[in-house]
Structure to design on (351 residues):
């Protein structure tokens, strides 16, 4: 009876190609705030290493010269090719013969449906493999807007973009929100200073649709939302629109507001803070800048996908992992999440 049950997993519905197509199209969950924004545009690659050409060009003034004299020569910009490797994320779920035979209804069709339901639960469920993969990618994206991405242990560095480009990481900018007065514009001026620094760091990128966004921990967000300058601006806006005074205090948990040309977002991280912004800090990055953030996906490490363009995720049944009493299902992704201008990433802290 166990062998009959396991035959269900040899059906075409459980082939690597079929399951991979399903795992990339049937996505019932949003992996997280950054993942849902679409900031990191995805691109498949054929290898596990990605090369980047870094053009280190500068503008220089042209000196005057006598008419008829030879013109001065333009110097070639010095380019550097840099390489970064993708990483492998793989996790498997095990389904035993007893789990299928103990609940199945007699008949091949029902048997297959039971197997599919079990796989669906382990893969698509609230804590299934896909949810865990989305959670991990959100962790990568949050690290990418911070300039350094760590492994799951929180200490092993996967990618340090500042080191990659030979740059020093800017320190935290500390703000004393208590010193911001209602009519002194200190907060607005501080925002403008940040935007200038970010704009300079993004030289060479199209900034037509650029929009600065700050992901804030709870304490930082509360201080920003509640400082005197922003409070007065809200009061004036409400009064000018002749709205009820209660609106001044209306604000949802994990909401956002725009001030000083920056969208301030109260980022909701995981309850265990493994994927979160520190409570008294914020991370500033630029949305709407084509090519600034990318996620590259390498192919899975199986013969089925050799010399193919990488996909965001794969679902596999590895032959060597199957036995007469159990089947294993693996979800795998091979990403490289990168910011191509780490100097544009700024960190803020509440005093």
């Amino acid at each position: 009876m166990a062998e009959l049950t396991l035959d269900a997993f040899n059906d075409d519905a459980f082939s690597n190609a079929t399951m991979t197509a399903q795992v990339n199209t049937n996505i019932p969950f949003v992996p997280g705030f950054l993942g849902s924004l679409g900031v990191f545009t995805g691109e498949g690659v054929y290898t596990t290493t990605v090369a980047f050409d870094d053009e280190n060009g500068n503008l220089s003034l042209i000196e005057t010269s006598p008419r008829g004299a030879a013109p001065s020569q333009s110097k070639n910009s010095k380019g550097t090719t840099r390489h970064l490797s993708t990483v492998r994320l793989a996790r498997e779920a095990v389904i035993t013969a007893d789990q299928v035979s103990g609940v199945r209804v007699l008949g091949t069709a029902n048997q297959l449906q039971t197997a599919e339901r079990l796989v669906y639960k382990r893969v698509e469920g609230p804590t299934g493999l896909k949810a865990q993969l989305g959670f991990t990618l959100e962790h990568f994206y949050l690290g990418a807007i911070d300039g350094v991405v760590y492994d799951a242990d929180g200490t092993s560095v996967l990618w340090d973009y500042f080191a990659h480009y030979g740059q020093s990481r800017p320190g935290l900018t500390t703000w004393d929100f208590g010193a911001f007065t209602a009519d002194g514009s200190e907060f607005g001026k501080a925002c403008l200073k940040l935007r200038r620094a970010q704009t300079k760091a993004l030289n060479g990128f199209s900034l037509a649709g650029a929009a600065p966004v700050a992901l804030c921990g709870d304490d930082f967000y509360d201080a920003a939302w509640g400082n005197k300058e922003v409070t007065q601006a809200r009061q004036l806006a409400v009064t000018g629109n002749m709205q009820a005074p209660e609106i001044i205090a209306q604000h949802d948990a994990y909401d956002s507001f725009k001030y000083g040309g920056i969208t301030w977002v109260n980022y909701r991280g995981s309850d265990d803070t493994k994927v979160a912004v520190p409570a008294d800090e914020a991370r500033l990055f630029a949305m709407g800048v084509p090519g600034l953030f990318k996620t590259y996906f390498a192919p899975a490490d199986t013969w089925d996908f050799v010399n193919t363009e990488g996909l965001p995720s794969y679902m596999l049944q590895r032959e060597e992992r199957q036995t007469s009493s159990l089947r294993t299902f693996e979800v795998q992704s091979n990403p490289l999440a990168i910011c191509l201008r780490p100097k544009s990433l700024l960190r803020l802290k509440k005093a």
